[in-house]
Amino acid sequence: MNFTNLLFFFLSYMLISIGLSTGQEYCYNTGNFTANSTYGRNRDLILSTLASINATEGFYNATIGQDSDEVYALALCSGDSSAEECSNCVNLTSKEIMTKCPNQKEAFMWGWNLLDKAPCYVRYSNRSFFGVLEQFTPVVRSNTGDIASNLMTEFNRIWGNLMDGLVGKASTSRLKFATEEENLTQFQTIYALMQCTPDLSQSNCSLCLRGYVTAYDKCCNGKQGGHIQGPNCNYRWELYPFYTITATPDAPAPYPLPPPSTITTTEDNGGGTNSRTIVIIVFSIILFFLLVSLAYVFLRKRKAKQDTKDIKSNQGRNLFFLKN
Ligand SMILES: *[C@@H]1O[C@H](CO)[C@@H](O)[C@H](O)[C@H]1NC(C)=O
Ligand SMILES: *[C@@H]1O[C@H](CO)[C@@H](O)[C@H](O)[C@H]1NC(C)=O
Ligand SMILES: *[C@@H]1O[C@H](CO)[C@@H](O)[C@H](O)[C@H]1NC(C)=O
Ligand SMILES: *[C@@H]1O[C@H](CO)[C@@H](O)[C@H](O)[C@H]1NC(C)=O
Ligand SMILES: *[C@@H]1O[C@H](CO)[C@@H](O)[C@H](O)[C@H]1NC(C)=O
Ligand SMILES: *[C@@H]1O[C@H](CO)[C@@H](O)[C@H](O)[C@H]1NC(C)=O
Ligand SMILES: *[C@@H]1O[C@H](CO)[C@@H](O)[C@H](O)[C@H]1NC(C)=O
Ligand SMILES: *[C@@H]1O[C@H](CO)[C@@H](O)[C@H](O)[C@H]1NC(C)=O
């Protein structure tokens, strides 16, 4: 493996890691349970059974326990995942919630499965939340890339129409899930996904999604994509396919990995991962490789010049080639 390949390998690995870690958990601050409490055991039990349900309907709610130890749980898979994919995704997401929210009485997470399909969803609480649209200030995440300024007028028209139509399509569908694509230019396509938990009424689902579209537009108009997740709905759009396109059965698969679009937190109410960290890590790693390659070129030159063996530079090279 030469240096360029090595560099490429590390960078592709970074992208995959970012792509797979898009799941975001949200641990509520409405109360904690203590370790070994009945509530805690009920929570762990119900979360670990969610994955074994037969999710051909893609949606499942359940309760366990009594009175103050009662746990309400809901699991959901996107309309396009098989029973096995659904179970795997719910399994991973339930485990992640238990790790990230070890003692919180309420939490939810939109988790991503390994096939880069639309996410599944897991939520639990000590109160009944089925059918309730919750007041919630979501985290708006947007891509850093900009839409070309000469396309903005056209973009706003196409994007607005697409989102309006999609709110209607998602809120009236049985599983409250819809995706839609629209060409922006000959070479660029807008891909959008909207989803509510199916226990919401059509009007509450529509309210929730419309609110997200407005929140995104206010914050991030002109950016190349964005993502908003809350307890009742999930909204994402990109200039690349990030879900299985259902409208075209003969669409090519598997889809390419997301391009290296970095994500920034533009609004943060305390939930989830800090995306800024990811950006910093990516830049640090790129900087690190630049320095290593400069050092490598420098050492090569130096070795060519003076034919005498220099232990230090040899050590440096050996260290480097250990990675081969
Ligand atoms: C849920 O737990 C919190 C914190 O312990 C408590 O204040 C609240 O009343 C509980 N809700 C229900 C419906 O039991
Ligand atoms: C619950 O526990 C977390 C730590 O896991 C803590 O940060 C938080 O303040 C606690 N919340 C309440 C309401 O006690
Ligand atoms: C929980 O229970 C287990 C066994 O019942 C015990 O070993 C453990 O120490 C307990 N943990 C706490 C924090 O009480
Ligand atoms: C969940 O994943 C674990 C491995 O991490 C596996 O042992 C278990 O059987 C899975 N549960 C279901 C219901 O698929
Ligand atoms: C789930 O249910 C469907 C029909 O309702 C059945 O065909 C399928 O075998 C079931 N899958 C599992 C894993 O039980
Ligand atoms: C699941 O949610 C529905 C409302 O969408 C409710 O009628 C039903 O009782 C819930 N099931 C359980 C087991 O709580
Ligand atoms: C919508 O959600 C609210 C809670 O925010 C609830 O009171 C209301 O009943 C819901 N509306 C419908 C039609 O389900
Ligand atoms: C987008 O453009 C491609 C060709 O560039 C065409 O095949 C496709 O049907 C168009 N899609 C839509 C939704 O208009």
Which SSEs are present, and which pair or pack?
Blueprint: H1 3-20, E1 24-27, H2 38-50, E2 59-64, E3 71-76, H3 83-100, E4 107-111, E5 120-125, E6 139-143, H4 152-172, E7 177-183, E8 189-196, H5 202-220, E9 225-229, E10 233-238, E11 263-265, H6 275-305, H7 311-321
Helix pairs in contact: 1-6, 2-3, 4-5
Description:
The protein has 324 residues and is of the alpha+beta class. Among the domains are: 106 residues, 2-Layer Sandwich (Killer Toxin P4, Chain A), CATH 3.30.430.20; 117 residues, Killer Toxin P4, Chain A (2-Layer Sandwich), CATH 3.30.430. It is 40% helix and 19% strand. The protein is built from seven helices and eleven strands. It has a six-stranded antiparallel β-sheet with strand order 7-8-10-9-6-11. A five-stranded antiparallel β-sheet has the order 1-4-5-3-2, covered by helices on one side. α2 packs antiparallel against α3 and α4 runs antiparallel to α5. It starts with a helix and ends with a helix. Bound molecules: 2-acetamido-2-deoxy-beta-D-glucopyranose (8 copies). The site of one 2-acetamido-2-deoxy-beta-D-glucopyranose has 6 residues, from β2.
